[in-house]
Amino acid sequence: MNRRLIALVAVLTMNVVAAFAQSSENADPRALDQFIKGNAAAQQGNPYQAIYYFEDALRFDATAPFLHVALAEQYLILAEENKSADAISRAEAALESALKLDPGHIPALELKSKLLSAQGKTDKAKEVVEKLLDKDPSNQGYRAELLGLSLVTGEFDDVDSLYKLLNSSEDPDLDLTRRVVALYLMTGESGRALPYMQELASADSTDAAVTYTLATLYLQTDDTAKAIAEVNRAIQLDSADARYWYLKLVIEFEHDHYESVISLAEKARASAGEDAKTTNLEALSWLRLADSTQAMARFTRAFELDSTFYPAAGSLALLYDAMGNMAQSEKHYNTAIELSDSAAIYLNNCAYMYAVRGLKLDEAMILVDHALEKEPDNPSYLDTKGWIYYQQRKYKDALKWIKKALKKDEGSAALLEHIGDVYFAMGKTAHAQEQWEAGLAKDPNALTLKEKLGR
């Protein structure tokens, strides 16, 4: 059960009182007397006593739908207090009795929609609210409820149309706007979230968090120019928030402006302090600029700032591998694998590090097999498995797996080189040269291929 049902009780009870008073001049006074007593008990927070009086009222007049609704309300409160499935069943039965007497009874329909929603029966709840809207098409409360249910069911076209009806006034409900935005963001509906976020930004141009979120949405919808403008504005509004700087750095990095990333990272540290993600992006920029010393220093610092930040550990492992420091590489790969919950890329990279050295090949095979379980069509992982077989001198198996990789990445000079290497190890020199030639055609600057071809 959901406590939102309890919040509804007071409103519905007033509706029930009004309905009773207007129902009939011939209303049984004994039922009315018991109902008033039950309502007083309900207001005092005594559902047991209220149920007693409402059931007594029904003995005098079982044809009044609102009495059944009043009884249902109290059973729902009892269900919430005692976590009682029986109380819920009794509430449902009381509601059904009310609707049998009057299928269009508004308090019964209102309570039923809330009950169904609280039970997770969203589609059925929508059907009930649609009935209520048919009876009262201009009711904003029903529209808002239907909008909320449509958000849950993912019927976003209905959400957008209902929102326009609800927020067509000069005084929009920004809480509703935030609610719609939040769900669109959670479900990855960036395009749909964008106009709502623009509305929030227009309502308060000084809210840095809103401006930042708007920038992320522009970036996700491929409007980089607006993303840059909004993230710059977010930084102007609050330069002490590292998230805003990081987004700006991401945009610069994705446009290959590596010197700009490094420069901006210094400004970010001065304004917002050190941040692992920003430091890591700075390190990646140094790496792209072929300065492995600076990259190593910044990756190390990123991991010092956040010892759970596994991308930095994975990058350090790659750098140590390139330096020939297998012990440090292995250490950082193990850290990255553990912290990332065995991300496929780290499993594969560690396996390949062993494979190229011809070391720990059984362990390497276990690692790459785990990687392939996660990403069975990744050509790099298929190649790693083939290269392990190559080092084990199982050349037919090696050829099989590297050819699988080539089917996934036909333009890879490295894969063609590996196939050539396998053929060469099998004594098939002509086949090897053919593959190496094909690889050199894909990458004319490949030094190892030139060496193998004697050029």
Report the span from N to C terminus.
77 Å
Helix proportion: over 70%
Strand content: under 5%
Number of beta strands? 0
What order do the SSEs take from the amino end to the carboxyl end, as H and E? HHHHHHHHHHHHHHHHHHHHHHHHHH
Walkthrough of the structure:
- This protein has 455 residues and is mainly α.
- Among the domains are: 119 residues, Tetratricopeptide repeat domain (Serine Threonine Protein Phosphatase 5, Tetratricopeptide repeat); 45 residues, no CATH class.
- Helices cover 79% and strands 0% of the residues.
- The longest helix has 20 residues.
- It is elongated, with a radius of gyration of 34 Å.
Q: What are the defining features of this structure?
A:
455 residues; Serine Threonine Protein Phosphatase 5, Tetratricopeptide repeat; disordered N terminus
Secondary structure layout:
Elements: H1 4-23, H2 29-43, H3 47-60, H4 65-82, H5 85-101, H6 106-118, H7 122-135, H8 140-153, H9 156-166, H10 174-186, H11 190-203, H12 208-220, H13 224-237, H14 242-254, H15 258-272, H16 276-288, H17 292-305, H18 310-323, H19 326-339, H20 344-357, H21 361-374, H22 379-391, H23 395-408, H24 413-425, H25 429-442, H26 447-452
Helix pairs in contact: 1-2, 1-4, 1-6, 2-3, 3-4, 4-5, 5-6, 6-7, 7-8, 8-9, 8-10, 10-11, 11-12, 12-13, 13-14, 14-15, 14-16, 15-16, 16-17, 17-18, 18-19, 18-20, 19-20, 20-21, 20-22, 21-22, 22-23, 23-24, 24-25
